[in-house]
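Our collaborator T.R. sent over the components below with a one-line note: 'Predict the complex.' Nothing else. No constraints on interfaces, no templates requested, no preferences about which chain binds where. So this is a plain run: every listed entity goes in together, and whatever single assembly comes back becomes the starting point for the next discussion.
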Amino acid sequence: MERTERLLDLVALLLDSKHPISWPELREAFKADYGTGSLESCERKFERDKAELLELGIPLTFIKGDDEHEEGYVVDRDAYYLPEVSLSAEELAVLYAAGSAALGSGGFPGSQDLAHALRKIGFFTDGPPPAPKVRLELGGVAETKNLPERLDALWSAITTRKSVTLDYFSPHSKQESHRVVDAYGLALRRGLWSLVGYCHLRKAIRTFHVHRMHRVTVNASKPRSPDYEVPASFSLEEYVATWPWQHRFHEPIDVEVLLTGELAPLAGTLFPSTPTSDERGARVTLRATDLDGLLTYVLSLGAQAKVLGPDRAKARHRELALAVFTAHGGVTS
Amino acid sequence: MTPEGRTDVHERLRRLLFLVPFVSRNQGRSVDEVAKELGIKRDELLEELDLLAFVGRPPFQPDDFVDIYVEDDKVYVDLDQRLSAPPRLTAAAGVALAAAAALLKPGHSDALKSAIEKLEQVLPAHAVKRFREMGKRLDLTLEGPTGLATLSQAIVEHRVVTFDYLTSATAHAERRKVEPIELFSHRGQWYLSGFDVARQSERLFRLDRMGAPDVTGETFAPRATSGRTSLPGVSQSVQKVTVRFEAATAPYIRERFGVEARGLPEGRIEVDVPGDNVRWLTGWVLSFGGAATVTSPDWAIRSVADAAKASLE
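Returned assembly:
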């Protein structure tokens, strides 16, 4: 019997049964699969089937018998069946909008999981799901063709805690290096996906841009046995820069920035810091571990963004602005 | 193996465990409709239906089989063998959905936030811990600006929004009243497409140039829109501006522009960008701190020089 068919039969049998089904009964019911060959090989086959069903969210529980109860396997029907979720029309609509946007982006890890989840939350609703009005286009990079496949492989590695091997291109060295990585997590920042994990080559936790990976392979040996544990203290956001000055290149430096004129009311949007206001505008203080990353961001905002201090940051800001000015034919007096 | 690294059996099983209850609840849907719902091709669906004809529970008497069939190109179930509802969400499916929802930056009291909280109800009890643990492994929560969830809900409910908006053309933020149509993210930047009531036309608004949006009690009837929103700086350029990059920056620019980047001597490269938004152009060139130089046309070179000079004063 084909394995898919056997597993479906098993689910149908257990969902219908009013009493636990013993191992001898299962062997009799599935004679060709669990009833022939050595007992040990039959038990191993059944264990693999149980594990497959558990991954689908269907736990087979063994009930120990006593004087009053038979022993055997059961599926708890309440735990199996999807309950009707009391989502309001608005809740369902925004959830659909978000899920559909992520699926439509063509680059979302666990896209099959997400598609199944969307189907299930809409199962009890009548009529078609609300039309998505949110669209997500990923990628600040030109090459995105293999991104969905890579993301799905990485998500699979993360959920099963299996190591991945990959070739990683560094634009800095312009070379590829072969890495084995214990995949801890994925993060999306400014349209780009990053993998954070323990790099066996560097013997430390490292962050990798997914678009710079080639030949991503998940360790296929012993698929149900994790290769590693994620340290309890691990926090994904500590390793992924959200803003260009958060890359961990240097010792941290606190920089004060003043936003004037039309930028002042947008201070809280333009910077992840609570602004303070005075007669000149809004001031924010940022902790930078990549000073040039912060200063070029400030430059990009134009003349209404000024660096107030410290002196080192002010001098570097001026140096960068001067470099742009002279490169464009400006002559300093 | 599937692209996810899971077995084909796994993917097929969860499809079939959804298919039977779906048809049971939606009797008489066309083959194409059911295939679309499951995200598979028509032929694949027919194959799945063939397999289901052999599925049932021991001892496999005639009434013990799933009775699912196609008649006049419509799909029906007579006996579902207790596959009357799909299994609950797995932890991985719940995490994927919660992560997708996080893209829209749920606030403390909006519909998205309460929807995410309800997700745990549809997980099996044994999967809740894993759902919470895995939720920390997929991080999109910082990706979107605040206001996304508010605007999403306003779109769904056809409610007019108002907000302060800073344009490239005016020196001060202006109050805008907008019928929101669509939110979209392009290269990490979020935009709202909407009908500007004062200007009586469809406009595009960058969310990082927008103050906190207010959802009014005023509703609107959706208008016939112009279709898919034009992306900023992609198709509406009046003139191309050529920008040259130094060798150290070139590999990063190549990643973004791909084959559009042209190689120059000494490892430099150049690209053409739209010149229809001077504010964007000068900000972008300044953000490279001297590693990018506009080489033509002259007005664009002067604009960047003026912007750099203003930053020096």
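Summary for T.R.: Chain B has four domains: 8-79, 91-135, 148-219, 240-312.
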